[in-house]
Sequence to fold (137 residues):
Amino acid sequence: MKLGQKFQYAMGIVLVIILGMSFLWTKYRENQLNDRSLESSATMTGALLKQVLDDFMANGRNDELPDFISETEQIEGINEVRIIRSNLFEDITGYEPKDDLDREVLRTGELITFFDNENKSFRKIIPFNAELECLDC
Fold:
């Protein structure tokens, strides 16, 4: 084999390696951007839902919450909307914590964001810390 042919084979192999690495890097960056976009959408949706729920509760429309939640869950990209309440509200049933993440948010009052790699979905648990005057209504 001539030196020119050896050089061409070597260059071909180098180009295949570079193209393969470029493809893998592009897929990795695409996944990162998709994950960020999902998180941003979850954050905006959560903030909007929190604002709407605040309005419902401030205006004494709690009886409309189940219908609102049901309609919200029909929106593409939203898998589930739940309201959980601490055990201070023992007179209200149906709003119990589902798992340890729910209980952690109730205990700490801090937002939790959980990304499920397998399902490519976010779970955002947003605390709704009522002010003392809110508890009167």
